[in-house]
Amino acid sequence: MSMERALFLLVALVGPAVTLSLGQTPALGQTAEPAAGSANSATPAAASIPDFSGIWWHPSLPGFEPLASGPTSLTNRSRKNGVSNYDQLVGDYTNPILQPWASAEVKRRGELSLAGIEYENPANQCWPEPLPFIYKNFAIQLLQQPNQVTIIYEQDHEFRTVRLNEQHPAKLAPSWYGDSVGRYEGDTLVVDTVGQKHGPFAMIDLFGTPYTDALHVVERYRLLDYEDAKEALERDTKENFHPGVFMDRKNRGKYLQIYFTVEDKTVFTTPWSATVTYGHGSDDWPETVCAENTHEYYNNKDSEVPTADKPDF
């Protein structure tokens, strides 16, 4: 498999895990945008709040688990050994969720990949990764506190803060990870995110599917027993390449699943959904840093970069 960060040095410092679980108490009130549910349900008891503590792994690429039916995420048209060919990221531009201009953009990027050209994305350019692109990260931890949940990712020190039982601000300044508000609904944490900044590498997946300022994502986090997670794990195995690291795929214990729904009326013809299902495995928490470096340490050569006879400034 080709190294994704072709022009960047990837430094991984792996040490003993520091798994944090901050005190869990009842959420206070209810919040949220209409798309995320009612704003006036009862406050959950402390015992009913799910415990998401621990390190959760999903080492699958490109990452999303397309649903078996209904509007869902793109699959890779390029296959290798029956699953997604991570060396050629060719999104299915015929997926009916895409508006024509978005379909053309996905097709264009797929043609670049088929030609052996690695197009720019937030990961290989060391930029903040928007939601749901950020699910590309292999591991997450959820730090639960009375008034917020902090979600940390194992690459590039990325994290998101979810304010519990609050509304989105009336005047929202766009930011890289957007504004996330959440609430507990029984055994499920529901997170509503809007206001993600539209940067130069604005895409929601590794196929280059674009997004605009209208992007709206609702996530539902819940714990599943193996039998309940099995169907999603099978969808993951059918679609994604597994590097074979970190996660114990023989685990018959608990799994953490994110069922997410994406809406952007400028890009998509309809809201669509998919899942990402995390399991247990390694207790190490790798500190992975994306650092600019034109030397390809894995090929022991320097990358070819644009040059000019004189500066353009």
Give the helices and strands, then pairings.
Layout: E1 8-15, E2 56-57, E3 65-66, E4 79-80, E5 83-84, H1 100-114, E6 139-144, E7 148-153, E8 159-164, E9 179-185, E10 188-194, E11 216-224, H2 226-239, E12 255-263, E13 272-278, E14 285-292, E15 295-296, E16 301-302
Parallel strand pairs: 8-9
Antiparallel strand pairs: 1-14, 2-6, 3-13, 4-5, 6-7, 7-8, 9-10, 10-11, 11-12, 12-13, 15-16
Protein described:
The strands form four sheets. Strands 2-6-7-8-9-10-11-12-13-3 form a ten-stranded mixed sheet, covered by helices on one side. A two-stranded antiparallel ribbon has the order 1-14. It has one domain (about 10-35, about 50-300). The chain is mainly β. The chain has helices spanning about 100-115, 225-240; strands at about 10-15, 55, 65, 80, 85, 140-145, 150-155, 160-165, 180-185, 190-195, 215-225, 255-265, 270-280, 285-290, 295, 300.
